[in-house]
Amino acid sequence: MFLISNLQHRKKSLQPLAVLLALALLLPLGALTAFGENLPGDGFAALRQKEPVPAFGSITGTVAEIRPMQSLPNAYYILLEDEESPTWFTITADTFLFSDEAPEPGDTVTGFYDLNAPMILIYPPQYPIVALAVNPGDTHLFVGEFGSDLVDATETLMLVITEDTRVETPDGQPFAEPLTGHTLAVEYSTSTRSIPAQTRPQRVVVLSAELNDADVTEDENDENEATDEIDGEDEHENEPAKPEENGNASSRPITHEPDWMPALDGMDLVVENTILPDAPAAWATDNRVVMVPLKTIAEALGYRVHWLAETRTITLSDSYSLTIGADAYVDMSQDSPIRLGTPPALREGRTFVPLTFFRDVIPMNNAYVFENQIVIDNQEIMH
Protein backbone atom coordinates (compact mmCIF):
# COMPACT_ATOMS: atom_id res chain seq x y z
CA MET A 1 0.00 0.00 0.00
CA PHE A 2 2.86 2.33 0.88
CA LEU A 3 4.54 1.53 -2.44
CA ILE A 4 1.42 2.40 -4.44
CA SER A 5 0.94 5.64 -2.52
CA ASN A 6 4.58 6.61 -3.02
CA LEU A 7 4.35 5.97 -6.76
CA GLN A 8 1.21 8.08 -6.98
CA HIS A 9 3.00 10.89 -5.14
CA ARG A 10 5.93 10.73 -7.54
CA LYS A 11 3.58 10.69 -10.50
CA LYS A 12 1.91 13.86 -9.25
CA SER A 13 5.28 15.54 -8.60
CA LEU A 14 6.38 14.81 -12.18
CA GLN A 15 3.28 16.32 -13.74
CA PRO A 16 4.58 19.94 -13.81
CA LEU A 17 7.81 18.74 -15.40
CA ALA A 18 5.85 16.80 -18.03
CA VAL A 19 3.83 19.90 -18.84
CA LEU A 20 6.98 21.97 -19.28
CA LEU A 21 8.59 19.32 -21.49
CA ALA A 22 5.49 19.25 -23.65
CA LEU A 23 5.60 23.02 -23.98
CA ALA A 24 9.26 22.82 -24.93
CA LEU A 25 8.35 20.55 -27.83
CA LEU A 26 5.36 22.56 -28.98
CA LEU A 27 6.39 26.18 -28.47
CA PRO A 28 9.12 28.14 -30.26
CA LEU A 29 12.11 29.03 -28.13
CA GLY A 30 11.07 32.72 -27.98
CA ALA A 31 7.61 31.85 -26.64
CA LEU A 32 9.05 29.36 -24.15
CA THR A 33 11.49 31.97 -22.88
CA ALA A 34 8.71 34.53 -22.48
CA PHE A 35 6.65 31.93 -20.61
CA GLY A 36 9.61 31.15 -18.36
CA GLU A 37 10.14 34.83 -17.57
CA ASN A 38 6.63 34.96 -16.07
CA LEU A 39 7.25 32.01 -13.74
CA PRO A 40 7.93 32.84 -10.08
CA GLY A 41 11.38 32.36 -8.62
CA ASP A 42 14.17 31.09 -10.86
CA GLY A 43 11.81 29.17 -13.18
CA PHE A 44 13.71 29.50 -16.46
CA ALA A 45 16.71 31.47 -15.23
CA ALA A 46 19.05 29.41 -17.38
CA LEU A 47 17.12 30.34 -20.50
CA ARG A 48 17.14 34.02 -19.60
CA GLN A 49 20.87 34.18 -18.99
CA LYS A 50 22.89 35.58 -21.88
CA GLU A 51 26.45 34.68 -22.66
CA PRO A 52 28.83 37.67 -22.71
CA VAL A 53 29.18 39.00 -26.23
CA PRO A 54 32.77 39.72 -27.30
CA ALA A 55 33.51 43.20 -28.60
CA PHE A 56 36.21 42.05 -31.01
CA GLY A 57 36.71 39.11 -33.32
CA SER A 58 39.93 37.95 -34.96
CA ILE A 59 40.97 36.30 -38.22
CA THR A 60 44.34 34.74 -39.02
CA GLY A 61 45.53 33.94 -42.52
CA THR A 62 48.27 34.19 -45.11
CA VAL A 63 48.66 37.33 -47.18
CA ALA A 64 47.93 36.68 -50.85
CA GLU A 65 47.77 40.27 -52.12
CA ILE A 66 48.25 43.83 -50.91
CA ARG A 67 46.42 46.57 -52.78
CA PRO A 68 46.70 50.32 -52.06
CA MET A 69 43.53 52.22 -51.26
CA GLN A 70 43.22 54.87 -53.93
CA SER A 71 40.85 57.18 -52.08
CA LEU A 72 42.63 57.25 -48.69
CA PRO A 73 46.33 58.06 -48.17
CA ASN A 74 48.51 55.52 -46.32
CA ALA A 75 45.73 52.93 -46.43
CA TYR A 76 45.61 49.56 -48.14
CA TYR A 77 43.74 46.27 -48.50
CA ILE A 78 45.07 42.82 -47.58
CA LEU A 79 43.64 39.72 -49.26
CA LEU A 80 44.02 36.50 -47.27
CA GLU A 81 44.68 33.25 -49.14
CA ASP A 82 41.65 31.00 -49.10
CA GLU A 83 40.17 29.71 -52.35
CA GLU A 84 36.90 28.69 -50.70
CA SER A 85 36.43 31.75 -48.48
CA PRO A 86 38.68 34.71 -49.35
CA THR A 87 38.76 37.63 -46.94
CA TRP A 88 39.81 41.27 -47.25
CA PHE A 89 41.33 43.35 -44.45
CA THR A 90 41.22 47.16 -44.66
CA ILE A 91 44.19 48.83 -43.00
CA THR A 92 44.17 52.58 -42.34
CA ALA A 93 46.16 55.08 -40.28
CA ASP A 94 43.84 54.23 -37.35
CA THR A 95 44.84 50.55 -37.38
CA PHE A 96 47.20 49.65 -34.53
CA LEU A 97 50.18 47.55 -35.66
CA PHE A 98 51.63 45.28 -33.01
CA SER A 99 55.07 45.65 -34.63
CA ASP A 100 56.86 47.89 -37.11
CA GLU A 101 56.99 45.04 -39.61
CA ALA A 102 54.95 45.81 -42.74
CA PRO A 103 52.95 42.89 -44.16
CA GLU A 104 54.15 41.24 -47.35
CA PRO A 105 52.65 38.48 -49.53
CA GLY A 106 53.28 35.16 -47.83
CA ASP A 107 53.26 36.59 -44.30
CA THR A 108 50.93 35.28 -41.63
CA VAL A 109 48.75 38.04 -40.19
CA THR A 110 46.15 38.24 -37.45
CA GLY A 111 43.59 41.00 -37.64
CA PHE A 112 41.20 42.09 -34.90
CA TYR A 113 37.94 43.80 -35.89
CA ASP A 114 35.07 45.44 -34.01
CA LEU A 115 32.07 43.11 -33.92
CA ASN A 116 29.76 46.05 -33.22
CA ALA A 117 30.96 48.19 -36.12
CA PRO A 118 28.84 48.48 -39.28
CA MET A 119 29.79 45.86 -41.89
CA ILE A 120 29.40 46.52 -45.58
CA LEU A 121 27.38 44.01 -47.58
CA ILE A 122 30.01 42.72 -49.98
CA TYR A 123 31.62 39.46 -51.10
CA PRO A 124 34.33 38.56 -50.33
CA PRO A 125 33.71 39.92 -46.83
CA GLN A 126 35.76 42.93 -45.81
CA TYR A 127 36.80 43.71 -42.24
CA PRO A 128 38.00 47.13 -41.03
CA ILE A 129 40.95 46.07 -38.87
CA VAL A 130 41.43 47.67 -35.46
CA ALA A 131 44.73 45.91 -34.66
CA LEU A 132 47.06 43.90 -36.91
CA ALA A 133 49.91 41.53 -36.07
CA VAL A 134 52.40 40.38 -38.73
CA ASN A 135 54.06 36.98 -38.23
CA PRO A 136 53.14 36.83 -34.51
CA GLY A 137 54.83 33.45 -34.02
CA ASP A 138 54.34 32.04 -30.53
CA THR A 139 53.21 35.35 -29.05
CA HIS A 140 49.61 35.32 -27.86
CA LEU A 141 47.51 38.35 -28.79
CA PHE A 142 44.20 39.58 -27.46
CA VAL A 143 42.02 42.66 -27.93
CA GLY A 144 39.12 43.31 -25.59
CA GLU A 145 37.31 45.66 -23.23
CA PHE A 146 38.54 45.35 -19.64
CA GLY A 147 36.72 46.16 -16.40
CA SER A 148 37.86 47.26 -12.95
CA ASP A 149 39.28 43.84 -12.08
CA LEU A 150 41.22 43.78 -15.39
CA VAL A 151 39.06 40.93 -16.65
CA ASP A 152 37.78 41.37 -20.18
CA ALA A 153 34.05 41.62 -20.85
CA THR A 154 33.81 37.98 -21.96
CA GLU A 155 35.66 36.75 -18.85
CA THR A 156 38.26 35.12 -21.06
CA LEU A 157 41.44 36.82 -19.86
CA MET A 158 42.55 38.45 -16.61
CA LEU A 159 45.60 40.72 -16.62
CA VAL A 160 48.14 40.74 -13.80
CA ILE A 161 50.17 43.90 -14.35
CA THR A 162 53.74 43.80 -13.02
CA GLU A 163 56.64 46.24 -13.06
CA ASP A 164 57.90 44.47 -16.19
CA THR A 165 54.69 45.10 -18.14
CA ARG A 166 54.92 47.81 -20.78
CA VAL A 167 51.70 49.83 -20.63
CA GLU A 168 51.55 52.38 -23.43
CA THR A 169 49.49 54.19 -26.02
CA PRO A 170 49.51 53.19 -29.73
CA ASP A 171 52.28 55.69 -30.46
CA GLY A 172 54.52 54.12 -27.80
CA GLN A 173 54.05 56.71 -25.05
CA PRO A 174 53.82 55.40 -21.45
CA PHE A 175 50.28 55.22 -20.06
CA ALA A 176 50.09 55.69 -16.30
CA GLU A 177 46.34 56.06 -15.78
CA PRO A 178 44.01 53.25 -14.62
CA LEU A 179 43.21 50.67 -17.29
CA THR A 180 39.60 50.29 -16.15
CA GLY A 181 37.06 50.69 -18.93
CA HIS A 182 39.61 50.80 -21.74
CA THR A 183 39.96 48.76 -24.91
CA LEU A 184 43.33 47.01 -24.62
CA ALA A 185 45.58 45.16 -27.05
CA VAL A 186 47.54 42.58 -25.08
CA GLU A 187 50.72 40.61 -25.86
CA TYR A 188 51.56 37.69 -23.60
CA SER A 189 53.44 34.37 -23.72
CA THR A 190 51.76 32.10 -21.16
CA SER A 191 48.58 31.99 -19.11
CA THR A 192 46.96 29.80 -16.51
CA ARG A 193 44.29 27.24 -17.38
CA SER A 194 41.78 28.84 -15.05
CA ILE A 195 38.56 30.61 -16.03
CA PRO A 196 39.30 33.35 -16.74
CA ALA A 197 42.86 32.62 -17.78
CA GLN A 198 45.36 34.78 -15.92
CA THR A 199 48.47 36.20 -17.54
CA ARG A 200 51.32 38.55 -16.82
CA PRO A 201 51.50 40.36 -20.14
CA GLN A 202 54.70 41.71 -21.64
CA ARG A 203 52.85 44.59 -23.28
CA VAL A 204 49.48 46.31 -22.96
CA VAL A 205 48.47 48.97 -25.47
CA VAL A 206 45.55 51.26 -24.59
CA LEU A 207 43.65 51.58 -27.87
CA SER A 208 40.82 53.70 -26.44
CA ALA A 209 42.98 56.32 -24.72
CA GLU A 210 42.50 59.00 -27.36
CA LEU A 211 38.76 58.32 -27.60
CA ASN A 212 38.26 58.74 -23.87
CA ASP A 213 40.25 61.97 -23.78
CA ALA A 214 37.89 63.53 -26.34
CA ASP A 215 34.75 61.98 -24.95
CA VAL A 216 31.53 63.92 -25.60
CA THR A 217 27.93 62.85 -25.42
CA GLU A 218 25.84 62.09 -28.46
CA ASP A 219 23.57 65.05 -27.67
CA GLU A 220 26.58 67.37 -27.53
CA ASN A 221 27.71 66.10 -30.93
CA ASP A 222 24.30 66.72 -32.44
CA GLU A 223 24.13 70.20 -30.92
CA ASN A 224 27.63 71.08 -32.12
CA GLU A 225 26.91 69.78 -35.59
CA ALA A 226 23.80 71.93 -35.93
CA THR A 227 25.56 74.95 -34.44
CA ASP A 228 28.48 74.57 -36.84
CA GLU A 229 26.15 74.83 -39.82
CA ILE A 230 24.35 77.92 -38.50
CA ASP A 231 27.57 79.58 -37.42
CA GLY A 232 29.10 78.88 -40.81
CA GLU A 233 26.22 80.64 -42.54
CA ASP A 234 26.36 83.65 -40.22
CA GLU A 235 30.10 83.88 -40.52
CA HIS A 236 30.12 84.22 -44.30
CA GLU A 237 26.70 85.73 -44.93
CA ASN A 238 27.97 89.32 -45.23
CA GLU A 239 31.63 88.55 -45.85
CA PRO A 240 33.01 89.91 -49.14
CA ALA A 241 34.23 87.32 -51.60
CA LYS A 242 37.96 86.71 -51.52
CA PRO A 243 39.82 87.73 -54.67
CA GLU A 244 41.54 85.04 -56.72
CA GLU A 245 43.95 85.15 -59.61
CA ASN A 246 41.38 83.70 -61.98
CA GLY A 247 38.30 85.47 -60.61
CA ASN A 248 36.06 85.15 -57.61
CA ALA A 249 36.29 82.07 -55.38
CA SER A 250 32.51 81.68 -55.59
CA SER A 251 32.76 81.08 -59.33
CA ARG A 252 35.21 78.20 -59.04
CA PRO A 253 33.70 74.68 -58.94
CA ILE A 254 34.33 72.96 -55.60
CA THR A 255 33.74 69.34 -54.73
CA HIS A 256 35.51 68.58 -51.47
CA GLU A 257 37.54 71.03 -49.38
CA PRO A 258 37.39 74.62 -50.71
CA ASP A 259 39.69 77.33 -49.39
CA TRP A 260 36.61 78.96 -47.91
CA MET A 261 33.07 77.71 -47.56
CA PRO A 262 30.14 79.63 -49.07
CA ALA A 263 26.77 79.44 -47.35
CA LEU A 264 25.22 76.19 -48.62
CA ASP A 265 21.78 76.63 -47.11
CA GLY A 266 19.43 78.05 -49.72
CA MET A 267 21.49 76.94 -52.70
CA ASP A 268 19.50 75.30 -55.50
CA LEU A 269 20.20 71.61 -56.00
CA VAL A 270 20.36 71.06 -59.77
CA VAL A 271 20.40 67.48 -61.08
CA GLU A 272 20.61 66.94 -64.84
CA ASN A 273 19.56 70.55 -65.49
CA THR A 274 16.52 70.28 -63.21
CA ILE A 275 16.18 72.18 -59.94
CA LEU A 276 14.91 69.80 -57.25
CA PRO A 277 12.18 71.62 -55.31
CA ASP A 278 11.98 71.18 -51.53
CA ALA A 279 15.33 69.34 -51.45
CA PRO A 280 16.91 69.18 -47.96
CA ALA A 281 19.59 71.82 -47.57
CA ALA A 282 23.20 70.86 -48.08
CA TRP A 283 25.68 71.51 -45.28
CA ALA A 284 29.40 71.29 -44.59
CA THR A 285 31.38 69.27 -42.06
CA ASP A 286 34.07 70.75 -39.83
CA ASN A 287 36.55 69.64 -42.51
CA ARG A 288 34.66 71.63 -45.17
CA VAL A 289 33.25 68.58 -46.90
CA VAL A 290 30.04 69.41 -48.76
CA MET A 291 27.26 67.01 -47.70
CA VAL A 292 24.17 66.55 -49.89
CA PRO A 293 20.90 64.60 -49.46
CA LEU A 294 21.27 61.08 -50.88
CA LYS A 295 17.68 59.96 -51.49
CA THR A 296 16.51 63.14 -53.23
CA ILE A 297 19.40 63.10 -55.69
CA ALA A 298 19.51 59.33 -56.23
CA GLU A 299 15.80 59.14 -57.03
CA ALA A 300 16.18 62.05 -59.46
CA LEU A 301 18.86 59.96 -61.21
CA GLY A 302 16.46 56.99 -61.47
CA TYR A 303 17.70 54.80 -58.59
CA ARG A 304 15.42 52.89 -56.21
CA VAL A 305 16.49 53.80 -52.67
CA HIS A 306 16.01 51.15 -49.97
CA TRP A 307 16.73 51.61 -46.24
CA LEU A 308 17.64 48.56 -44.10
CA ALA A 309 17.05 49.66 -40.50
CA GLU A 310 18.79 46.70 -38.82
CA THR A 311 22.19 47.59 -40.25
CA ARG A 312 21.49 51.25 -41.16
CA THR A 313 22.43 50.38 -44.73
CA ILE A 314 21.10 52.08 -47.86
CA THR A 315 21.07 50.46 -51.28
CA LEU A 316 20.57 52.20 -54.61
CA SER A 317 18.81 49.71 -56.90
CA ASP A 318 21.20 46.75 -57.22
CA SER A 319 24.18 48.97 -57.96
CA TYR A 320 25.47 50.67 -54.82
CA SER A 321 25.29 50.36 -51.05
CA LEU A 322 26.52 52.35 -48.07
CA THR A 323 26.22 52.22 -44.29
CA ILE A 324 25.74 55.14 -41.92
CA GLY A 325 29.02 55.93 -40.18
CA ALA A 326 31.17 53.70 -42.42
CA ASP A 327 33.52 55.26 -44.95
CA ALA A 328 33.07 52.34 -47.34
CA TYR A 329 30.93 53.03 -50.40
CA VAL A 330 30.22 49.87 -52.36
CA ASP A 331 29.94 49.69 -56.12
CA MET A 332 28.56 46.18 -56.48
CA SER A 333 30.38 45.72 -59.78
CA GLN A 334 33.73 46.19 -58.04
CA ASP A 335 35.65 43.96 -55.63
CA SER A 336 36.64 46.66 -53.14
CA PRO A 337 34.71 49.54 -51.56
CA ILE A 338 35.52 53.17 -52.27
CA ARG A 339 36.75 55.48 -49.50
CA LEU A 340 35.83 59.14 -49.69
CA GLY A 341 37.39 60.23 -46.40
CA THR A 342 33.96 61.08 -44.94
CA PRO A 343 31.24 58.54 -44.02
CA PRO A 344 27.53 59.03 -44.75
CA ALA A 345 25.65 60.73 -41.91
CA LEU A 346 22.10 61.08 -40.63
CA ARG A 347 20.81 64.61 -40.18
CA GLU A 348 17.22 65.27 -39.15
CA GLY A 349 16.29 61.76 -40.22
CA ARG A 350 17.83 62.02 -43.70
CA THR A 351 20.98 60.46 -45.12
CA PHE A 352 23.66 62.81 -46.41
CA VAL A 353 26.76 61.85 -48.38
CA PRO A 354 29.81 63.80 -49.55
CA LEU A 355 29.17 65.59 -52.84
CA THR A 356 32.05 63.57 -54.29
CA PHE A 357 29.87 60.44 -53.92
CA PHE A 358 28.16 61.50 -57.15
CA ARG A 359 31.44 61.68 -58.98
CA ASP A 360 33.70 59.02 -57.44
CA VAL A 361 31.11 56.32 -56.63
CA ILE A 362 28.21 56.99 -58.99
CA PRO A 363 30.37 58.07 -61.93
CA MET A 364 28.65 61.31 -62.88
CA ASN A 365 30.77 63.71 -64.92
CA ASN A 366 30.14 66.67 -62.64
CA ALA A 367 29.42 67.21 -58.95
CA TYR A 368 30.33 70.71 -57.82
CA VAL A 369 29.24 74.00 -56.26
CA PHE A 370 29.01 76.81 -58.80
CA GLU A 371 27.47 80.28 -58.58
CA ASN A 372 25.15 79.48 -55.66
CA GLN A 373 24.08 76.15 -57.12
CA ILE A 374 25.01 72.56 -56.36
CA VAL A 375 25.23 70.90 -59.74
CA ILE A 376 25.24 67.16 -60.49
CA ASP A 377 25.04 66.00 -64.09
CA ASN A 378 26.62 64.10 -66.97
CA GLN A 379 27.25 67.16 -69.12
CA GLU A 380 30.69 68.12 -70.37
CA ILE A 381 33.19 67.69 -67.58
CA MET A 382 33.95 70.88 -65.65
CA HIS A 383 37.57 71.36 -64.58
From TrEMBL:
SUPFAM superfamilies: Copper amine oxidase, domain N. Residues 212-237 have a biased composition (Acidic residues). Gene3D superfamilies: Copper amine oxidase-like, N-terminal domain. It comes from the Bacteria. Pfam families: Cu_amine_oxidN1 (PF07833). Residues 211-261 are annotated as: Disordered. Residues 285-368 form the Copper amine oxidase-like N-terminal domain. This is Copper amine oxidase N-terminal domain-containing protein.
